[in-house]
Amino acid sequence: MGPPGAGKGTQGALLSQALGVPRFATGDLLRDAVKRGTPLGLEARAVMEAGHLVSDDIILGVVREELARDSAANGVIFDGVVRTIPQAEGLERLLAERGRHIDAVLFFDVTDAEILARLEKRRAVEGRADDDPAAVVTRLRAYREQTAPVLAWYDQRGGVRRIPAVGAVDEIARRVGEAVSAVRK
């Protein structure tokens, strides 16, 4: 978990590779379901094409489908999948149905100034419209209003590991590895 630009995608991919388990990112899961033409994918496409946010039920349905795949048998990395408390509650139920649970929540802690600098750099390299400064401010506001409360929800349950997310990618990856190793002991 963390705000936009905190490094979740980069570190999630590295951790996925290190542990040999798939990484589930909401956008990737939805795009894949749409591409494969699954019933939930078709439903999600209709919602997205209408310009609306995909409901918690659709998100959780896609996650349920992905958890049933053989590749998820040994665990997964959830990358920004849980964005609301109802999604967190639903994910907890989905995992419990399979006799599984979340081992730890990694929170990538980074200042707004660092986020703005990172996303401005990414915008210059990748040309992403969603990294425009005004769009970033909107995304940060949405994060604080909708997703940040999920961190408090997980904090109450224990297991949140705060990762200082400033420094070189490999330095942050080392911190992530240490946090995960501490959980797996």
Enumerate how many helices there are, as a single number: 8
Residues in β-strands, percent: 5-15%
CATH homology superfamily: P-loop containing nucleotide triphosphate hydrolases
What is the C-level CATH assignment? Alpha Beta
Query: How much helical structure, as a percent, in the residues?
Result: 55-70%
Average pLDDT rating = 88
Low-confidence spans: none
Label the structural class: mainly alpha
Q: What is the CATH topology assignment?
A: Rossmann fold
Q: So, CATH architecture?
A: 3-Layer(aba) Sandwich
Tally the structural domains.
1
Q: How far apart are the termini?
A: 22 Å
Describe this protein's structure.
The radius of gyration is 16 Å and the shape is globular. The model has no long low-confidence stretch (mean pLDDT 88). The strands form two sheets. It has a two-stranded parallel ribbon. The chain has one domain: Rossmann fold (3-Layer(aba) Sandwich), CATH 3.40.50. It has eight helices and four strands; from the N terminus they run H-E-H-H-H-E-H-E-H-H-E-H. It is mainly alpha-helical.
